[in-house]
Design goal:
The complex is a heterotrimer of chains A (about 150), B (about 375) and C (about 600).
Chain A (H helix, E strand, L loop, with lengths): L5 H23 L7 H23 L31 H25 L3 H28 L5
Chain B lengths: L2 H7 L1 E5 L11 E7 L2 E8 L7 H6 L3 H8 L8 H15 L7 H28 L5 H21 L8 E2 L2 E2 L7 H24 L3 H7 L9 H5 L3 H5 L7 H4 L20 H25 L21 E9 L2 E9 L5 E7 L1 H13 L8 H8 L3 H4 L2
Antiparallel strand pairs in B: 1-2, 2-3, 4-5, 6-7, 7-8
Helix pairs in contact in B: 3-4, 5-6, 5-12, 5-14, 6-7, 7-12
Chain C lengths: L2 H5 L32 E3 L9 H5 L5 E5 L10 E6 L8 H5 L5 E3 L14 E2 L36 H4 L12 H8 L7 H5 L6 H9 L3 H9 L5 H7 L3 H5 L11 H11 L3 H4 L12 E5 L3 H11 L4 E5 L8 H4 L8 H13 L3 E3 L8 H8 L2 E4 L5 E2 L12 E3 H9 L9 E5 L3 H12 L3 E5 L11 H9 L3 E3 L2 E8 L5 E11 L7 E4 L5 E5 L1 E4 L3 E2 L7 H7 L19 E3 L10 H18 L20
Parallel strand pairs in C: 6-7, 6-9, 7-8, 9-21, 11-19, 12-13, 12-19, 13-14
Antiparallel strand pairs in C: 1-4, 2-3, 3-5, 10-20, 15-16, 16-17, 16-18
Helix pairs in contact in C: 5-7, 5-11, 7-8, 7-11, 8-11, 9-11, 13-21, 17-18
The chains are: A mainly alpha (about 150), B alpha+beta (about 375), C alpha/beta (about 600).
The complex binds flavin-adenine dinucleotide and iron/sulfur cluster (2 copies).
């Protein structure tokens, strides 16, 4: 992947958030478990929030980026990915979301590594951190709800 | 005889109830011919708080703060006897630790000492020699200082409780007892002797006054200094030994004369005896070990049916508790037998006829009445 | 009379030259002795508002007054002392179970307002607050009994070779002695989800009146023998004498009474109006919540049918809890009472498809207490290998009498009661057992006593162990691979485990038993109804009547409350018992001030 400007990178990232949004909307329309549809609609809504944040960055306001270290609980790292299916339950929904955020994070880490421009690298790292934050949100929920007794 | 005639011949006098002498609130309704009393009827009830009935309606532990009130100058005998009775009936007596037995003995001697100092001052105070009570009351206050240190209170100690005592002996207690109390008492005793027993005023008013005939001793159940002043060596501490008294070295003090002087003299000797006993006790006081047995939950404690009479030597004489339990968490009956009933009511009324009005106060003090004990 | 005697009194004059006895008039007040019993002080934070001080005070000098909001284990009340009554005996201090109450050595206080002499120590500020000296509770003197009568257990060696009950139970003498420790503060009542009348039945046991005790117990618990054996005993955790000692063995006392009687019906004196005559109720799920609803409605005259998928009622207490904790005869006794009360019991009947809709039409109300039947998955690689099983399945198979086998070496993943049960059952099936738990031992949701019992039976617990994957070994066994975890702080809740990368441990086992948790399964409900009552996590939300978002459908138990234990299920059942009566107009609507879990009585 080749990017020429910060603008381009941000557009790419914004596009990714939109993709995620569309994907969650799609799953929401398919799941049967009561209440899970709402969960996915909320996830889609969250992606819109992320998109808005990136647009802010594009407009020159960097304050939207996650500051400081973001914790990585690494819960999803050793769990098996799931494919969305209509009979999904809450555990699977969380697994799916954690994995999706993990993938987005990994992508930006790769991009940061691949670029030689220090300015761009910083931006990619910032984006990776953003995704990590999203993952932490789901991992925390997983740790609290699914792994309450473990 | 018509009423008018009676009135002409006899003057009726109410003596008390505001502390006639230093006995506490009771009164004597007396009839006089000239300045000689012909008859006296005692009236008590001014301090009546129905202690016994209160206790029949309270859990055992709730009776514990009540009993000290049965004798203000010497509350500890009551505390010990209630504990001893209930311990015996519940079987807890086997578990009272060694140290508690010693502390209890200490407390009983301290309270005898405090009470006797008070009364000795009263002996002469009631004759108008106000200086001596100032001394003895101060000495008593020194004892109360130690009580305060040991029990957390000066007068109502609420300290001797089922199973032992409520708190351990404080660090350095023995030394303070020696320097702050015992040494001071011993230093003062010769001065007091001089002012009381060598005083012609006291001798004139005490020797041969208020004589109790020896035959009355058993008939009336007289005890304490009153009986020992007749030459009878009657002392619960020896006759029905309890706590650590059998292990202590002391002789029963007696004298003859059976008058106010003799009774004051007994008290004076027993003050010295108490000082000595307290020293013995403190020397032998265990330094280690618990001061109270492990107690069951005092809020639900029940005691199997039974009855007992326990006794101890108060400064006034034999004090006893008759307690009946019925398996519940309260006493079925508790009867407090204080020496004051015998001395302050029956004996006093018998001694009054023929007594000079001026001697009534000294006489009452010499019998050492504690009215709440009469009307418990 | 000699001259000496005449002069003697004058010797008193000599004393005029000695040091005066009297205390010179110093400014300030002579301080009380270090243990003087002066004005009270109280540590508002440590005080639990148990009122034991007020209870012991023979002068009734203490009133308990509301100061803070009540919380579990703290009534929010604080003692207010009336010095017009107090005799400074300090029994209140010596009895205070929390140790918060004390007396300062201050004793002088002048005020022309008599009412000032009633104050709430620690709340109304006083100059002696925080005084160093004064009467304090002392270790060597205790007027409440802080030592629990010990409970006998089968020897661990013996236990693992039998399915017999581990806990021996109190003898009559032991029970009476233990009951006598109660100070009757009642903090436990507030902490018990069902608000059982705990001090009342303990007092009855203490007084030797077991029949009364049993009747009090059945006021609001129709499965007390189960609770007497396995309850999570939230009551004991707030017991006031437990603050500085062993809490009352409330559970064991309940167990003692309930075990005394075989024929419950003949002992129970049920006296309630049959207000439900002619009304029909369907209960789905025969767990503790369903049983509670069925019993308390049936004795009120309702026609109740209970539908249970398994061959036996009891729910998780039947299929989950192992028999060495809750034996079958105990459960049968309680089911018999249900039958005696006239409940129609339909077992081996899983409600499915459109049945719920039909039941709604045919009944005045429906109660759902179907519990959490679907285990969470491990989520790691190798989960589908044969030999990886779920604790719920294993326990159920064992409890309904199927042949179960776990091999020689077992690892259980999880730290709750289910995990411990699976581990102890596996021990009894002859395996060496290890529990792998992601967090620290202190974080384990399992009951401390359960953990101790498991360890005594030889179960090894590895804390901070994160399962990474399961692999098949060449000889057909399983290689359980786990990594160590470090605990990292969290801004939301307890510390969380985080994998330390680069280290892998291997454990070759025959079974991996997954016991990390379970969720509700609503696939049996018509989807439109499910949508109305449940959320994504499977939780069902109910109102103060226990009614779900669907009119006429009530719910309770594990799928409603977040404590997921039997007594909470019973409490939910009680709420529904009242809620259903309100819904049907038999009882008036609930007042704002009434507690959500009703305090009910059947005598
Ligand atoms: C292994 C284990 C150990 C436990 N140990 C303890 C303990 O020591 N102490 C404690 O307090 N709690 C313990 N619990 C928890 C306690 O058992 C539960 O909190 C309690 O049983 C929940 O009751 P409930 O009413 O919600 O229903 P559950 O007990 O969960 O029962 C639900 C019932 O509904 C039935 N059901 C489900 N769907 C249908 C349907 N469609 N049609 C018909 N029937 C259906 C099920 O078969 C089941 O019998 C334990 C649980 C388990 C699993
Ligand atoms: S006994 Fe102690 S803890 Fe209980 S209310 Fe009184 S002061 Fe508070
Ligand atoms: S000191 Fe005694 S009388 Fe005073 S409040 Fe406490 S228990 Fe009651």
């Amino acid at each position: 992947m080749q990017f020429d400007s910060i603008e381009e990178i941000l557009d790419f990232a914004i596009g990714k958030e939109m993709e995620a949004h569309d994907m969650y909307m799609d799953i929401a329309g398919k799941v049967k478990r009561p209440g899970l549809e709402k969960t996915f609609l909320e996830l889609a809504q969250m992606e819109l929030g992320h998109k808005a944040r990136l647009e802010q960055v594009k407009a020159g306001d960097l304050s939207g980026f996650a500051a400081g270290e973001v914790q990585n609980l690494k819960i999803s790292d050793h769990l098996v990915d799931v494919k969305p299916h209509p009979n999904m339950d809450y555990q699977e929904a969380l697994l799916f979301a954690m994995k999706a955020e993990q993938r987005a994070h990994d992508l930006y880490v790769d991009l940061a590594r691949a670029t030689s421009d220090p300015g761009l690298r910083e931006l990619f790292k910032g984006l990776a951190k953003e995704e990590l934050k999203h993952k932490l949100f789901f991992e925390t929920e997983y740790d609290d709800v699914i792994l309450e007794g473990n | 005889m018509t009423t008018t005639e009676t009135l002409r011949r006899r003057v009726q006098l109410w003596f008390g109830p505001q502390h006639p002498g230093i006995t506490g609130n009771m009164s004597v309704q007396a009839w006089l011919e000239g300045d000689t009393l012909t008859q006296g009827i005692t009236h008590v009830g001014y301090l009546h708080r129905a202690f016994e009935k209160l206790m029949e309606r309270r859990k055992f532990i709730q009776s514990f703060p009540i009993v000290c009130r049965i004798c203000v100058p010497e509350p500890d005998t009551n505390e010990y006897l209630l504990a001893a009775a209930l311990e015996e009936l519940s079987g807890l007596d086997r578990e009272v630790p060694e140290k508690a037995l010693w502390i209890r003995t200490l407390v009983l001697e301290m309270s005898r000492l405090a009470a006797m100092l008070q009364v000795l001052g009263g002996h002469v105070g009631s004759m108008g020699l106000g200086v001596v009570p100032n001394w003895t009351y101060t000495l008593r206050d020194y004892v109360l200082d130690r009580f305060e240190e040991l029990t957390g209170a000066r007068v109502y100690h609420m300290y001797t409780v089922f199973g032992g005592v409520r708190r351990d002996l404080p660090e350095g207690f023995a030394e303070r007892m020696e320097t702050e109390v015992l040494a001071k008492i011993e230093a003062k005793l010769p001065v007091i002797d001089n002012a009381i027993f060598d005083s012609s005023v006291f001798r004139k008013r005490a020797i041969g006054v208020g004589v109790v005939p020896e035959e009355w001793a058993d008939e009336m159940g007289i005890s304490g200094p009153v009986v020992r002043a007749m030459g009878i060596p009657r002392d619960t501490r020896k006759d029905f030994p309890y706590l650590k008294y059998p292990e202590l070295d002391f002789e029963v003090v007696t004298t003859t004369g059976s008058d106010i002087y003799a009774r004051a003299w007994i008290r004076r000797q027993e003050i010295a005896q108490s000082v000595d006993l307290i020293r013995q006790i403190l020397r032998r006081m265990p330094t280690e070990g618990p001061y109270c047995a492990k107690l069951p939950n005092m809020l639900t404690w029940t005691i199997p049916p039974g009855q007992t009479y326990v006794r101890a030597e108060a400064s006034r004489g034999e004090m006893g508790y008759y307690v009946v339990t019925d398996g519940s968490d309260k006493m079925r009956r508790v009867h407090v037998r204080g020496p004051s009933y015998v001395h302050g009511v029956s004996l006093l009324e018998r001694l009054i006829p023929g007594t000079n009005i001026a001697d009534l106060s000294p006489l009452m003090v010499s019998l050492q009445t504690c009215p709440p004990e009469i009307e418990r | 009379m000699s001259l000496k005697n005449t002069l003697a009194p004058f010797s008193a004059w000599m004393q005029a030259f000695s040091k005066p006895f009297t205390v010179p008039d110093e400014p300030g007040v002579r301080p009380g002795a270090p243990r003087y019993r002066g004005w009270h002080i109280n540590d508002r934070e440590t005080c639990i508002g148990c009122g034991t001080c007020a209870e012991i005070c023979q002068n009734v000098a203490i009133d308990m007054v509301p100061v803070d909001e009540p919380t579990k284990g703290d009534s929010g009340l604080r003692p207010k002392v009336d010095y017009g009554r107090c005799c400074w005996c300090a029994l209140c201090v010596d009895v205070c179970p929390s140790g918060s109450l004390a007396m300062s050595n201050e004793y002088v206080w002048v005020d022309h307002d008599g009412d000032a002499f009633r104050y709430t120590p620690g709340v109304d500020e006083k100059p002696w607050d925080g005084a160093e000296l004064g009467w304090r509770k002392d270790e060597g003197f205790d007027i409440v009994d802080h030592e629990r009568v010990p409970m006998g257990h089968l020897d661990p060696e013996e236990r693992i070779h039998t399915w017999a009950e581990v806990v021996v139970g109190y003898t009559e003498e032991e029970a009476r002695r233990e009951a006598a420790r109660c100070v009757e503060c009642g903090l436990c009542v507030a902490a018990c989800p069902a608000h059982m009348h705990i001090p009342d039945y303990i007092a009855a046991i203490r007084d030797g009146d077991d029949v009364r005790a049993l009747n009090v117990i059945y006021d609001n618990n129709s499965m007390p023998e189960m609770c007497g054996k396995v309850c999570t005993r939230r009551c004991e955790s707030v017991c006031s004498i437990g603050v500085n000692g062993d809490p009352l063995a409330i559970r064991w006392l309940k167990r003692y009474v309930t075990e005394r009687f075989d024929d419950l019906k003949s002992v129970l004196d049920v006296d309630v109006e049959r207000v439900g005559e002619g009304r029909k109720i369907a209960v789905i799920g025969g767990g503790p919540s369903g049983i509670t609803v069925a019993y308390y409605l049936a004795i009120r005259g309702f026609e109740v049918t209970i539908h249970e998928a398994l061959p036996q009622l009891g729910g998780a207490t039947f299929f989950g809890i192992p028999k060495y904790r809750f034996p079958m005869p105990s459960l049968e006794k309680q089911i018999k009472l249900l039958e005696d009360a006239g409940v129609k019991i339909v077992t081996n009947h899983r409600v499915e498809g459109d049945e719920l809709r039909r039941m709604l039409e045919e009944n005045d109300a429906v109660f759902i207490g179907t519990g959490l039947m679907k285990p969470y998955r491990l989520g790691a690689e190798g989960e589908d290998l044969p030999g990886v099983v779920y604790a719920l399945d294993l326990l159920r198979d064992k409890n309904i009498g199927r042949e179960v086998e776990v091999g020689e070496r077992v690892v259980v993943v999880g730290g709750g009661n289910v995990a411990i049960d699976a581990a102890r059952v596996s021990r009894r099936l002859g395996a060496e057992v290890t529990i792998a738990y992601r967090r620290r031992i202190v974080d384990m949701p399992a009951d401390d006593e359960e953990i101790e019992d498991a360890e005594a039976e030889g179960v090894e617990i590895i804390p901070q162990a994160i399962p990474l994957r399961v692999e098949r070994t060449d000889d057909g066994r399983l290689d359980f691979v786990w990594g160590p975890a470090e605990m990292v702080p969290s801004d939301r809740g307890r510390p969380r485990p985080k994998l330390i990368e680069g280290v892998e441990h291997h454990m070759v086992v025959d079974r991996v038993i997954v016991a990390i948790g379970q969720s509700a399964d609503h696939s049996w409900m018509p989807p439109d109804i499910a949508e109305k009552v449940a959320d994504a996590k499977g939780w069902i939300t109910v109102d103060h009547n226990g009614m779900t978002g669907h009119r006429g459908i009530f719910a309770g138990g594990d799928l409603v409350n977040d404590t997921a234990d039997a007594i909470s299920a019973i409490a939910d059942g009680l709420r529904a018992v009242e809620g259903i009566q309100r819904f049907l107009g038999i009882l008036p609507e609930r007042e704002e001030t009434e507690p959500e879990i009703p305090v009910i009585t059947v005598r």
